[in-house]
């Protein structure tokens, strides 16, 4: 049985379609990610799956239970960690868990055993007696994840599990998420707008944009669809002539004009910079900056939607707004010399 089955789910808020006819399956034991910018519809989808919102249209099951007609069964079989922290900072880590265990109706014996196990799993055994107010951001996050696991759910939902954490703590948190997925055998569905998180952590990723799934596959398979690196050129003058020349080159896999120049997809981008500069010279165009994007989920998002996730984030406040295709990759216009940067893997 699939952990989650979503069939044509739509959720609207007035005139806003937050989730638009989504269909996908999450297999038992998978670590599954919903990747997209703020406002893409990830939280709305999670809220439908955890029975906090009813779908406007379509159906979904979680652990075989229908999210509309079997809400109690769904809730009993899931754990949820929301974006907003919900811990009592005056209570100790252990007391926070005990409170939650009582809510779930766990008996004293079961409670004690399970709290010990969970604290061990999230690496908080030594600080179990300290007030949560003294915990670091990462420790609080782990405690929340542990709390979501107390009643041994089959599926754990994590909404932006590492938002607001520094890079190192984020990486540590990934290890704990992986550990629970592997050791506790729990299926995990997480939302994120961090490329690296989706890439590093997830077995499969759905790329979500404007309420729709643009692509769904393993990070490796998604990157393989690109078949090259994207070289973003900022160009002054003669962009059309440069595009005509790009069209003639057998080594150019694809190109697309942007507001500031052109994105060129080639094999091993770093080896083609000199050729691109040469081509530009020939047609009287000036390349003022070069950015090389190794294939990662950001470049997959770019090729699918015409914008970077970061651009969408910058445009936030207008979450979910439609942007023009091939929006600028960067605001490097006006640089006088060529700067070459590469995304970290
Ligand atoms: N309760 C609501 N009322 C009205 N509009 C909403 C509501 N909840 C979400 N939306 C809108 O639905 C769209 C999707 O929002 P959603 O929060 O699901 O996106 P998201 O990808 O989870 O982003 P974030 O990470 O910022 O929560 C946005 O346009 C948002 O403004």
Automatic annotation (TrEMBL):
It is found in: Cell membrane. Keywords: ATP-binding, Cell membrane, Membrane, Nucleotide-binding, Plasmid, Translocase, Transport. The keyword Membrane applies. It comes from the Archaea. GO terms for cellular component: plasma membrane. InterPro entries: AAA+_ATPase, ABC_transporter-like_ATP-bd, ABC_transporter-like_CS, DrrA, P-loop_NTPase. GO terms for molecular function: ATP binding; ATP hydrolysis activity. Residues 4-235 form the ABC transporter domain. It is a peripheral membrane protein. GO terms for biological process: daunorubicin transport; doxorubicin transport. Residues 313-345 are annotated as: Disordered. Pfam families: ABC_tran (PF00005). The keyword Cell membrane applies. Belongs to the ABC transporter superfamily. Drug exporter-1 (DrugE1) (TC 3.A.1.105) family. PANTHER family: LINEARMYCIN RESISTANCE ATP-BINDING PROTEIN LNRL. NCBIfam families: drrA (TIGR01188). This is ABC transporter ATP-binding protein. It comes from Halostagnicola larsenii XH-48.
């Amino acid at each position: 049985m699939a952990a989650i089955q979503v069939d044509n789910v739509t959720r609207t808020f007035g005139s806003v379609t937050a989730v638009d006819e989504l269909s996908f399956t999450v297999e038992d034991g998978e670590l599954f990610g919903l990747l997209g910018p703020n406002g893409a519809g990830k939280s709305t989808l999670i809220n439908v799956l955890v029975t906090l919102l009813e779908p406007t249209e379509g159906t979904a099951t979680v652990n075989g239970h229908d999210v509309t007609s079997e809400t109690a069964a769904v809730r009993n079989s899931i754990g949820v960690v929301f974006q907003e922290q919900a811990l009592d900072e005056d209570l100790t880590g252990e007391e926070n868990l005990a409170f939650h265990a009582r809510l779930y109706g766990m008996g004293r014996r079961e409670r004690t055993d399970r709290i010990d196990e969970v604290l061990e799993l999230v690496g908080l055994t030594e600080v179990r007696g300290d007030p949560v107010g003294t915990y670091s951001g990462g420790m609080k996050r782990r405690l929340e994840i542990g709390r979501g696991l107390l009643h041994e759910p089959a599926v754990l939902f994590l909404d932006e599990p590492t938002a607001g954490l520094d890079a190192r703590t984020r990486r540590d948190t990934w290890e704990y998420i992986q550990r629970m997925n592997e050791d506790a055998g729990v299926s995990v569905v997480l939302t994120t707008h961090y490329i690296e998180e989706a890439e590093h952590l997830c077995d499969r990723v759905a790329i979500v944009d404007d309420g729709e799934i643009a692509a769904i596959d393993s990070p490796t398979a998604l990157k393989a669809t690109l078949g090259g690196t994207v070289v973003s050129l900022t160009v002054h003058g003669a962009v059309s002539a440069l595009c005509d020349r790009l069209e003639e080159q057998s080594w150019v896999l694809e190109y697309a004009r942007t507001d500031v120049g052109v994105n060129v997809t080639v094999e091993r981008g770093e080896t083609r910079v000199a050729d691109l500069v040469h081509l530009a010279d020939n047609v009287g165009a000036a390349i003022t900056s070069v950015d090389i994007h190794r294939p990662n989920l950001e470049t997959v998002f770019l090729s699918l939607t015409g914008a970077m996730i970061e651009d969408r984030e910058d445009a936030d406040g207008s979450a979910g707004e439609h942007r023009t295709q091939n929006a600028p990759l960067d605001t490097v216009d006006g640089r006088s010399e060529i700067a070459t940067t590469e995304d970290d893997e």
